[in-house]
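> example.struct
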């Protein structure tokens, strides 16, 4: 069970080192944020001075703030973006923070993030023999996957034509809401085994590609 669980939460990063694990997830999120902003603003983000890889590019924090400012994000989605940034910033810049417990004890912000993680994901129960650190690593993985999904859906929203936008996004929201309700029914020891964002991410990317092709015609 633990081996299979490990394979699932290592979907985006193979690292067993927690700091590197968190950084690899947030590097992926930064690229998706940059791609989404390029999609929304009709910019070739990889060659952009603002969102590309040059020294003049905006910081990860600044890019996330722009995403948060865009209309359409729900309050909880903004909070999840803020929390993943808080985790990332502490692990990236404070050498003494090497575990989730270190982070939670680092100040009021750490306490608030822990409270949110427990509120959002604690209802799914626990996995037998899972330590506290493993539990919060699993919570972080789910948080990262949700943030990735949110950003992709936001880019999708701005990619579709005005005629089909509301219909397509309403269908996506209904699907996600139904998906979330089903997740809440799963016991903790089955959660990771039965649930992965791979399918929904793949579908979202395919939809973005299809919408772009349709608009270019």
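> example.seq
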């Amino acid at each position: 069970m633990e081996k299979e669980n490990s394979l699932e939460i290592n979907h985006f990063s193979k690292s067993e080192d927690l700091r590197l694990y968190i950084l690899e997830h947030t590097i992926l999120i930064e690229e998706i944020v940059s791609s989404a902003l390029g999609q929304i603003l009709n910019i070739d983000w990889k060659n952009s001075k603002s969102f590309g890889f040059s020294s003049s590019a905006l910081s990860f924090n600044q890019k996330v703030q722009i995403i948060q400012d865009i209309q359409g994000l729900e309050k909880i989605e903004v909070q999840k973006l803020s929390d993943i940034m808080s985790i990332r910033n502490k692990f990236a810049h404070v050498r003494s923070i090497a575990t989730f417990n270190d982070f939670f004890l680092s100040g009021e912000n750490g306490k608030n993030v822990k409270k949110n993680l427990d509120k959002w994901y604690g209802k799914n129960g626990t996995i037998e023999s899972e330590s506290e650190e493993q539990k919060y690593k699993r919570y972080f993985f789910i948080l990262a996957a949700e943030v990735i999904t949110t950003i992709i859906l936001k880019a999708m929203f701005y990619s579709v034509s005005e005629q089909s936008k509301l219909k397509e996004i309403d269908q996506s929201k209904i699907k996600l809401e139904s998906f979330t309700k089903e997740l809440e029914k799963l016991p903790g020891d089955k959660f990771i085994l039965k649930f992965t964002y791979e399918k929904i991410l793949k579908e979202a990317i395919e939809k973005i590609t299809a919408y772009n092709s349709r608009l270019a015609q």
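> remarks
The radius of gyration is 18 Å.
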